[in-house]
Amino acid sequence: MLEIQMSQARTISDKQAKTLLAWIDTRRNARRNSAAFALTYYAGMRVGEVAALTIGDVTTDSGDVKDVIALSASMTKGDKGREVFLNSTAKRYVGDLLSSQVECPPERPLIRAMGTHQPFTANSLSILFRNLYRDAGFDGCSSHTGRRSFCSNLANKGVGIRVIQKLSGHRSLQSVQP
After folding, report:
1. What is the pTM of this model?
2. What value, to the nearest 5°, has the Cα angle with vertex 80 and ends 63 and 167?
3. pLDDT for 58-90, tens place per residue?
Protein backbone atom coordinates (compact mmCIF):
# COMPACT_ATOMS: atom_id res chain seq x y z
CA MET A 1 0.00 0.00 0.00
CA LEU A 2 1.34 3.41 -0.97
CA GLU A 3 1.41 5.90 1.87
CA ILE A 4 1.51 9.56 0.96
CA GLN A 5 3.31 11.76 3.44
CA MET A 6 1.85 15.26 3.58
CA SER A 7 4.19 17.97 4.75
CA GLN A 8 3.05 19.81 7.83
CA ALA A 9 2.89 23.55 8.19
CA ARG A 10 5.83 25.06 9.99
CA THR A 11 5.29 26.21 13.56
CA ILE A 12 6.47 29.54 14.89
CA SER A 13 7.47 30.71 18.36
CA ASP A 14 5.97 33.54 20.39
CA LYS A 15 8.95 35.72 19.45
CA GLN A 16 8.39 34.99 15.76
CA ALA A 17 4.65 35.70 16.14
CA LYS A 18 5.47 39.09 17.64
CA THR A 19 7.89 39.76 14.79
CA LEU A 20 5.21 38.85 12.25
CA LEU A 21 2.62 41.05 13.98
CA ALA A 22 5.08 43.96 13.99
CA TRP A 23 5.67 43.43 10.27
CA ILE A 24 1.91 43.19 9.57
CA ASP A 25 1.50 46.48 11.45
CA THR A 26 3.57 48.22 8.74
CA ARG A 27 1.32 47.02 5.91
CA ARG A 28 -2.12 47.81 4.50
CA ASN A 29 -5.08 46.31 6.35
CA ALA A 30 -2.91 45.81 9.42
CA ARG A 31 -5.77 45.61 11.93
CA ARG A 32 -7.72 43.10 9.86
CA ASN A 33 -4.69 40.93 9.15
CA SER A 34 -3.45 41.09 12.76
CA ALA A 35 -6.86 40.04 14.06
CA ALA A 36 -7.07 37.16 11.59
CA PHE A 37 -3.59 35.97 12.54
CA ALA A 38 -4.31 36.36 16.27
CA LEU A 39 -7.41 34.17 15.98
CA THR A 40 -5.33 31.35 14.47
CA TYR A 41 -2.21 31.73 16.63
CA TYR A 42 -3.67 32.70 20.01
CA ALA A 43 -7.04 30.90 19.78
CA GLY A 44 -6.22 27.93 17.54
CA MET A 45 -8.96 28.62 15.01
CA ARG A 46 -9.02 27.08 11.56
CA VAL A 47 -8.85 29.54 8.69
CA GLY A 48 -12.37 28.53 7.58
CA GLU A 49 -13.67 29.28 11.06
CA VAL A 50 -12.06 32.73 11.00
CA ALA A 51 -13.54 33.41 7.56
CA ALA A 52 -17.01 32.45 8.81
CA LEU A 53 -17.05 34.81 11.82
CA THR A 54 -19.43 37.74 11.99
CA ILE A 55 -19.14 40.72 14.29
CA GLY A 56 -22.06 39.33 16.32
CA ASP A 57 -20.15 36.08 16.87
CA VAL A 58 -17.32 37.87 18.67
CA THR A 59 -19.11 40.69 20.53
CA THR A 60 -21.44 40.88 23.50
CA ASP A 61 -24.66 42.91 23.44
CA SER A 62 -22.72 45.81 24.95
CA GLY A 63 -20.09 45.65 22.17
CA ASP A 64 -17.24 44.09 24.16
CA VAL A 65 -15.19 41.25 22.70
CA LYS A 66 -16.36 37.91 24.08
CA ASP A 67 -14.17 35.61 26.14
CA VAL A 68 -15.66 32.57 24.40
CA ILE A 69 -16.88 32.33 20.82
CA ALA A 70 -19.55 29.73 20.09
CA LEU A 71 -19.01 28.29 16.61
CA SER A 72 -21.98 26.60 15.01
CA ALA A 73 -21.61 23.29 13.18
CA SER A 74 -21.81 25.13 9.85
CA MET A 75 -18.72 27.15 10.78
CA THR A 76 -16.50 24.21 11.77
CA LYS A 77 -14.89 21.24 10.13
CA GLY A 78 -17.19 18.27 10.49
CA ASP A 79 -20.68 18.45 11.85
CA LYS A 80 -20.18 19.68 15.41
CA GLY A 81 -20.02 23.17 16.80
CA ARG A 82 -17.37 24.11 19.34
CA GLU A 83 -16.29 26.83 21.70
CA VAL A 84 -13.19 28.94 21.13
CA PHE A 85 -11.58 30.64 24.10
CA LEU A 86 -9.98 34.02 23.45
CA ASN A 87 -7.02 35.04 25.56
CA SER A 88 -6.33 38.70 26.28
CA THR A 89 -4.02 39.05 23.27
CA ALA A 90 -6.55 37.67 20.79
CA LYS A 91 -9.25 39.85 22.35
CA ARG A 92 -7.03 42.93 22.01
CA TYR A 93 -6.44 42.37 18.29
CA VAL A 94 -10.12 41.70 17.61
CA GLY A 95 -11.02 44.78 19.66
CA ASP A 96 -8.52 46.90 17.69
CA LEU A 97 -10.13 45.75 14.45
CA LEU A 98 -13.62 46.53 15.70
CA SER A 99 -12.61 49.96 17.00
CA SER A 100 -11.34 50.88 13.53
CA GLN A 101 -14.72 50.25 11.92
CA VAL A 102 -17.39 52.92 11.61
CA GLU A 103 -20.35 50.56 11.56
CA CYS A 104 -20.41 47.19 13.27
CA PRO A 105 -23.76 45.50 12.61
CA PRO A 106 -23.71 42.00 14.10
CA GLU A 107 -24.40 40.24 10.80
CA ARG A 108 -21.39 41.83 9.06
CA PRO A 109 -18.35 39.56 8.50
CA LEU A 110 -15.56 40.20 10.99
CA ILE A 111 -12.78 39.65 8.46
CA ARG A 112 -13.73 41.33 5.19
CA ALA A 113 -12.13 41.74 1.82
CA MET A 114 -10.70 45.22 1.39
CA GLY A 115 -13.24 47.87 0.46
CA THR A 116 -16.24 45.56 0.68
CA HIS A 117 -18.63 44.12 3.21
CA GLN A 118 -17.99 40.66 1.78
CA PRO A 119 -16.32 37.94 3.84
CA PHE A 120 -13.21 36.13 2.78
CA THR A 121 -13.75 32.55 1.74
CA ALA A 122 -11.62 29.96 3.51
CA ASN A 123 -9.57 29.67 0.32
CA SER A 124 -9.03 33.40 -0.17
CA LEU A 125 -8.07 33.80 3.51
CA SER A 126 -5.62 30.90 3.11
CA ILE A 127 -4.02 32.75 0.23
CA LEU A 128 -3.83 35.93 2.31
CA PHE A 129 -2.03 34.03 5.08
CA ARG A 130 0.36 32.37 2.64
CA ASN A 131 1.21 35.77 1.16
CA LEU A 132 1.67 37.41 4.57
CA TYR A 133 4.05 34.71 5.76
CA ARG A 134 5.96 34.66 2.48
CA ASP A 135 6.28 38.43 2.22
CA ALA A 136 7.46 38.63 5.84
CA GLY A 137 10.15 36.02 5.10
CA PHE A 138 8.60 33.07 6.95
CA ASP A 139 9.37 30.16 4.63
CA GLY A 140 7.35 26.96 4.97
CA CYS A 141 4.39 28.65 6.64
CA SER A 142 0.79 28.33 5.54
CA SER A 143 -2.69 29.17 6.74
CA HIS A 144 -2.35 26.26 9.18
CA THR A 145 0.81 27.62 10.83
CA GLY A 146 -0.99 29.70 13.46
CA ARG A 147 -3.24 26.83 14.50
CA ARG A 148 -0.42 24.29 14.55
CA SER A 149 1.74 26.69 16.55
CA PHE A 150 -1.12 27.18 19.03
CA CYS A 151 -1.21 23.44 19.70
CA SER A 152 2.58 23.05 19.80
CA ASN A 153 3.04 25.99 22.15
CA LEU A 154 0.46 24.52 24.55
CA ALA A 155 2.20 21.14 24.44
CA ASN A 156 5.58 22.78 25.10
CA LYS A 157 4.07 24.40 28.20
CA GLY A 158 3.00 21.00 29.53
CA VAL A 159 -0.71 21.24 28.73
CA GLY A 160 -2.28 17.79 28.49
CA ILE A 161 -3.09 16.37 25.09
CA ARG A 162 -6.82 16.01 25.85
CA VAL A 163 -7.01 19.68 26.84
CA ILE A 164 -5.24 20.63 23.60
CA GLN A 165 -7.70 18.40 21.72
CA LYS A 166 -10.63 20.23 23.33
CA LEU A 167 -9.18 23.72 22.79
CA SER A 168 -8.30 23.05 19.16
CA GLY A 169 -11.53 21.26 18.27
CA HIS A 170 -9.81 18.10 17.03
CA ARG A 171 -12.08 15.08 17.12
CA SER A 172 -9.26 12.57 17.12
CA LEU A 173 -6.30 12.38 19.48
CA GLN A 174 -4.26 11.10 16.52
CA SER A 175 -4.72 14.48 14.86
CA VAL A 176 -3.31 16.29 17.88
CA GLN A 177 -0.30 14.06 18.61
CA PRO A 178 1.97 15.17 15.72
Report:
1. 0.88
2. 65
3. 999 998 999 999 998 888 877 788 899 999 999
Give which of 86, 84, 95, 14 is closest to 49, Cα–Cα.
84
CB 136, CB 8: distance < 8 Å: no
Rounded mean pLDDT, 4-26? 85
The 10 Å Cβ neighbour count of residue 69 is 23
> What secondary structure letter does DSSP report for 116?
S
Torsion sign across C-alpha atoms 77, 80, 81, 82: negative
Alpha-carbon gap, residue 40 to 49, rounded angstroms: 9
- For the chain, how many helices (H) and strands (E)? 9, 2
Q: Please give the DSSP secondary-structure letter assigned to residue 83.
A: E
Tell me the β-bridge partners of 109: 54
